[in-house]
Design brief:
The protein has 13 helices and 19 strands. Helices cover 34% and strands 23% of the residues. The chain is of the alpha/beta class and 441 residues long. The protein is globular and about 60 Å long.
């Protein structure tokens, strides 16, 4: 029997790929797949459960779907992903509107779960999170010019603040042959920007024991018909000279490197169980800038880890003022149960941590403004993502802007610019963190 199955994906791009895999499996089984839960037989919510804000978003989404169900506009509700994996008993006890659960080890059980829930059962699938099938088909939901390629699942780094290994399992790389076949299919379909993702792409291949490395994978990906290849996320201690050489040599790899450092004080880094010192991070950034003077570095930072006093926080700020990293995501420490950091002494008052986040965001805003000012008068290659009717002009991104994370370029053109096309734009202004300009004829 065929059902109408609606999918909603929360959280990161890695989670989105699991949603796309479930969509493909349901479509192959003959079900109608949609993104609109109104009128669906089954809604599948793929959740994030990484930090407090993600958990709140997931619970709000469950309640919205439950309201749709109570109004008779939705029949059944399945909840999948990290929240299910982390809190199955709580969901069963406190959210009776949820008809079934799938953990992060059971995305491939989606068709059976749909059929069971429509038969009046309450499916509960929790497979081995260390052994998931990452090579299945996908129904790509991103715009036709951009797609993600997840090269590994899980994480074995064991950072003190992070719950991901408990939700996603140990680090496991996908075979290179499978990745290259998937990437070729994406290129053949017209994808122009390939975003290579994993919890940590720098350790790709090391667990396979056959000599596979990220540098070798990137060399092969660059032979395919992509215009841009973007990298998320590179852990600083695992960036090798060979990898730097490949990134610097290959023109398709954009000079935008997302390198989460989390802090710059050695004591806090050690408490976080990070593997780099401040001096090693500084050395790496100097190497990258020497090899690629136009490199844009993005990072992630945590304020308020237990033990972070004013001295440690000021060291982080001084590091940022000196390094002038063009992009940064700044997060308040979230004491997640089951992590080492949640049980540490010297917890920082949440209000103090929140204020520190504000200070770093303000500092980074000034650094970003300075970077944008330096772009004025230059000509930059922009991937057009369509006409923004609200702004009254076209919108796109440069190599320095990753999708749904960074700023945009708002630009005018004498003629039509199709979405997905690359154009050269002369930068003429800055508007609320976005660049403005006009197509260079």
């Amino acid at each position: 029997m065929s059902y109408k199955v609606a999918f909603i994906s929360l959280g990161c791009a890695k989670n989105l790929i699991n949603t796309e895999q479930m969509m493909a499996l349901c479509r192959e089984a003959g079900h109608t797949v949609t993104g609109d839960p109104d009128g669906a037989d089954v809604a599948v919510l793929n959740t994030c459960g990484f930090i407090e804000s993600a958990k709140s978003e997931a619970i709000d989404a469950i309640l919205e779907l439950a309201a749709l169900k109570n109004a008779g506009k939705l029949n059944k509700l399945l909840v999948a992903g990290c929240l299910s994996q982390r809190y199955p008993d709580d969901i069963r006890a406190e959210l009776p509107e949820v008809d079934g659960l799938l953990g992060t080890g059971s995305y491939t059980d989606i068709v059976t779960a749909v059929e069971q829930v429509m038969a009046g059962e309450r499916p509960s699938f929790f497979g081995d999170i260390h052994r998931t099938d990452e090579d299945g088909g996908r129904w790509v939901t991103t715009p036709p010019w951009t797609a993600y390629l997840k090269i590994a699942e899980g994480c074995s780094n064991g950072c003190a603040f992070c719950v991901i290994p408990r939700l996603r399992g140990k680090y496991r790389s996908r075979p290179m042959a499978s990745l290259l076949a998937e990437a070729k299919a994406l290129a053949d379909s017209g994808v122009k920007e390939l975003i290579v993702i994993a919890q940590d792409i720098t350790r790709y291949g090391l667990d396979l024991g056959d000599g596979t490395t990220l540098a070798k994978l990137l060399t092969e990906l660059c032979k395919l018909d992509f215009h841009w290849i973007r990298l998320h996320y590179l852990y600083p201690e695992a960036v090798t000279d060979e990898l730097i050489a490949v990134i610097a040599r290959e023109k398709k790899i954009v000079r935008y490197l997302d390198i989460p450092i989390q802090h710059a004080n050695d004591g806090i880094l050690k408490a976080m169980r990070r593997r780099s010192t401040k001096a090693e991070i500084e050395t790496l950034f100097a190497k990258l800038r020497a090899a690629m003077p136009d490199v844009v570095i993005r990072t992630s930072l945590i304020c308020g880890l237990p033990g972070e006093g004013e001295t440690e926080f000021e060291e982080l700020c001084a590091f940022l003022r000196e390094q002038k990293l063009q992009r940064a995501g700044v997060f308040q420490f979230s004491p997640e149960e089951g992590t080492l950091a949640a049980a540490m002494e010297n917890q920082v008052d949440p209000d103090v941590a929140a204020r520190r986040v504000e200070l770093v965001v303000d500092l980074q805003s000034r650094i970003m403004d300075e970077y944008n000012e330096q772009r004025l008068g230059t000509c930059m290659e922009v991937l057009c993502e369509g006409f923004d009717s609200e702004a009254g002009c076209y919108a796109g991104r440069t190599y320095a802007d990753s999708v749904d994370i960074d700023g945009r370029v708002l630009f005018t053109a004498a003629g039509l610019v199709p979405a997905g096309e690359f154009v050269w734009v002369r930068i003429t202004g800055v508007s609320d963190g976005d660049l403005t300009g006009e197509v260079e004829e």
